[in-house]
Amino acid sequence: MKNQRIIPIRKNFRRFLSLPMALLPVLMLASCTANQEEDTKPNIVVIFCDDLGYGDLGTFGHPTIRTPNLDQMAEEGQKWTNFYVGASVCTPSRAALITGRLPIRNGMNGNRRVLFPNSIGGLQDSEITIAEAVKEVGYATACVGKWHLGHLPEYLPTNHGFDSYFGIPYSNDMDRVKGDLKDPEYLSFNVPLMRNEEIIERPAVQTTITKRYTEESIQFIKENKDQAFFLYLAHNLPHIPLFTSEEFVDTSIRGLYGDVIEEIDWSVGQIIKTLRSEGLAENTMVVFTSDNGPWLVFEQDGGSAGLLRDGKGTTWEGGMREPTIFWWPEKIQPGVITDMGATMDIFPTVCKLTGAEFPSDRIMDGVDLTQTLLDEKPSPRNTIFYYRGREIYAVRSGMYKAHFITENVYTKDHIRTEHETPLLFHLGHDPSEKYNIAEDHPDVIAEIMIVMEQHKAKLVIPDSQLDRKK
Ligand code: MG
């Protein structure tokens, strides 16, 4: 990044002119160090939550959940209000982030919507992950937290470009042996905690899981402060069942769900504090977002999508638009970005920032966001495809979103509707998708259908990895 290097060197030169000659030797030494630092590649930290709603952070408008650390991150960085995931449930959404490709291309879509403990599939070796890309240019890499792209050894993070792994390899409600999701004890969920490819604790003690993921992340940052690193911290929470460590029990007015979010906010604060105290803040980009919207069927134990419609599992906005913050002091231009972005864009953006090679032998679905992040230029993203399984349910093009199929989920009256005339919403005027304007805009629908057909024409769909089970 040319600009990033030039600006600090100019600053050094100005300081050079204003100092007495006696300080020259010291200054020259310091200047050498500074120049070496200019050449260091930026560290990348991606913090990924599970089932966090669009409306669950203070900075995104929640009236009672307190998230001072995330709010400050948003003040100092960029808050993206139209940022999407690749699917409305865990596994395909994670596959989209880590490969920069729609799940329909990487095999992580299917009739079973996510991987389960009895699944035998996982992310294929032929896929290239962000970790593999940055490893090629010398990065240390760590995955901490929920993986959910295959728990058998060949699919674990350590076989997808990560030097180390510490976490629960799938959702925290799986391997349920007893009990109620709404009144949980961690002993009721026999989920494993793994270090690299070994199970080190079972059932994982979930009350301390956010805290331990945080400690692990901080240790990794400190151990690798003298070289470029990529940290992927994927919290298991606030996916239900909800757990917090002792210090956060009954601390939020919002109840247990609020306690969980406030502990995650604390965790973010600890990571930022470490980056600052280790002198790494100005050379580290931190991205905070989540894999899909809130699990609304759990009522007060689930999160809130704010003014967006519906939640997890659906192709309404509440299922696939996430509260997203990019932070990098003195590099990212602070502000609120209303242009579109997606988790798939993190891969090409990281490639641009780190000098890693962007895969050219396959169709990638991400676009490079660096011009928006660093220079406040418009985002190059104009389209979102909302897949459920292997079908496109909706397409957003610019401000318009057309729904071809809608389906409510996790309810008794599960209804799938194919719309002869697609539903059409203007997401600028109507972010809650309340007012169908299809009748007035047949031309817009026709244009969106062309976009969809062009996209479909390039699809080569691999076998589903999700549908493989014991
Ligand atoms: Mg999820």
Unique ligands: magnesium ion
**Helicity level:** 25-40%
Specify the CATH class of the largest domain.
Answer: Alpha Beta
Overall mean pLDDT stands at: 91
What is the count of distinct domains?
2
Shape verdict: globular
User: Termini separation (Å)?
Assistant: 48 Å
Q: Indicate the structural class.
A: alpha/beta
Low-confidence stretches: 1-38
Radius of gyration: 22 Å
CATH architecture of the largest domain: 3-Layer(aba) Sandwich
Question: Main sheet, how many strands, which sense, barrel?
Answer: 10 strands, mixed
Widest sheet, order of strands? 6-5-4-3-7-1-8-9-2-10
Series of secondary-structure elements, N-terminal to C-terminal: HHEHEHHHEEEEHEHEHEEHHEEEEH
Beta content comes to 15-25%
How many strand segments?
A: 14
CATH superfamily of the largest domain: Alkaline Phosphatase, subunit A
CATH topology call of the largest domain: Alkaline Phosphatase, subunit A
The number of helices is 12
Describe the structure.
The chain is of the alpha/beta class. The chain has two domains: 42-381, Alkaline Phosphatase, subunit A (3-Layer(aba) Sandwich); 385-457, 2-Layer Sandwich (Arylsulfatase, C-terminal domain). 28% of the residues lie in helices and 19% in strands. It has a ten-stranded mixed beta sheet, sandwiched between helices. A four-stranded antiparallel beta sheet has the order 11-12-13-14, with helices on one face. Strand 5 and strand 6 (198-201) form a beta hairpin. Helix 1 runs antiparallel to helix 2 (24-39) and helix 7 packs parallel to helix 8. The longest helix has 22 residues, at 256-277. The structure holds magnesium ion. The site of magnesium ion has 6 residues, from loops.
